[in-house]
Each structure stands twice: as structure tokens, then as C-alpha cells.
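Appendix B. Chain record.
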Amino acid sequence: MVRLSLGRASAGGGSLTRFDVGQAVGQFYGYVADGIIQTADELAALNTKSPTGFYQASGTRAGDIKFKDLNGDGVVNGDDRTFIGNPNPKFTYGLNNTLAYKGFDLSVFIQGSQGNDVYNLNRYYLEGFGLAAASNGGTIALDRWTGPNTSNYVPRAVLQDPNQNNRVSSHFIENGSYLRVKLLTLGYTLPQSLLTTLHSQRVRIYVTAQNLATITKYTGFDPELGNQGNSLGVDRGIYPQSRVYLAGVNIGF
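C-alpha cells predicted for this chain:
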């Protein structure tokens, strides 16, 4: 089997995407996160399963992310990496429709993507895994583990991260599907009875909204990321698309 790993987008010392024969293009490749180690007893049980005492030697403590030992050798290392997400959507779609009733007209353009994953690289920094200046930079830090059963998602705050909670893993994978109202325009054309007074052949008043609403489970700024080089679906903090409101009048003489 021929394998090619491209790593322009990286975090935690590893490349995010991988190209493999027989696999979808540019899938995310890394470790499988399995919740948070809640207690010292749970950590001791993991060490019991490890012939090398790996978890103790690696500096893992309660509050760290538990990564799956996929090959069952008692050690979590590069051999336990696998494909953890697919940035390629199952399908994309769009719907453009115009409705009219008497003098009113309504145009709607809806667009979306379904079945794709996003690697939320923002959280690598916001949860405290990246630059110190950005640590705890998001409200998600308020949900981090501070004791048994306080969180099974955001790990403990720890200096230098000996367990490598920041490694490329499914912890940062999110559902990137979305539905967005890209454009909505509501207009009203004045009746002919008023046009003589206005000395016009046609007067239409309208209001338009761009990027009016987005339905998504993604927690980042914007699920519509586009292709960023060789790392489709990696959110590096892309600036969200602005919501714009316009109003105007079309006058024909």
C-alpha cells in the first residue's frame, strides 16, 4: 500500500491530514480520544493493562484525555493512529426560489453542506494547548476538568502538557454540516394607481439580507471553510462571513 502524508496543517507535533490509497482525499489522521480519565483508580487500571507502565511513565494524570490503545499493546503511540474524520461532504446543495403575490416578491437562496467533518484548530489554542497568550481564550475553558466527573470533554489545566492532550486526535473533530440562508430579498412594487402621481413607470422597494441565518452544530466561527491549500476542513480561525442588511428603491421612468 502506498501512503503519502502531507502536513502543512499541523498541531501537537503531527500532521493533520493523510492521503491513502482506497481512502477519501485528505482525511484527518490521528488518535482516538475516549473521554477524560476521571480518577486515580481509573488511571491505575490503565497502568495495570500496560506491561511497561506507560501511563505513569508518560506523566498522565487524572484529568487528561484518555486515548484508545487500538492495537492493544499497552502503549499509546504512533501505531495507534487511524483515520478520525473526513472533511469531504457527502453532498452539497443549494436552492434558489422566487415567490410573488400581488405586489410582493420574495427571493430566497439557501445553501449548505452535509456529512463533512471539521478539525477545529481554534480549540488547540483556546483550550490552553497552544500559545500561552491564547490559553483559556474561550468560554470552553470554563468546562474543563477540575475533579472527578466535572467534565468528560475538556481536560485539566496543566503546564507543558506531559500527556500530549494537544496531539492530533478526534478530540478536535466536529460535525461541519450546515444550512445557511445566503440571500433573502423581500420587495414590494407600488400599484399602477400610484405611479401616475409619482411620474414613474415602476417603483419597487426592497430589503435584502445576506448570510441571514446558519443552522449548524459546529462550535467555531463559521462552518463554511472552503479549501485552504492541502488541508480541506481545517479551521485555523477563518474570519466569519458578515451578515449584511441592505435596503433600496428601484425607480423606472
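Further analysis of this model is presented in Appendix C.
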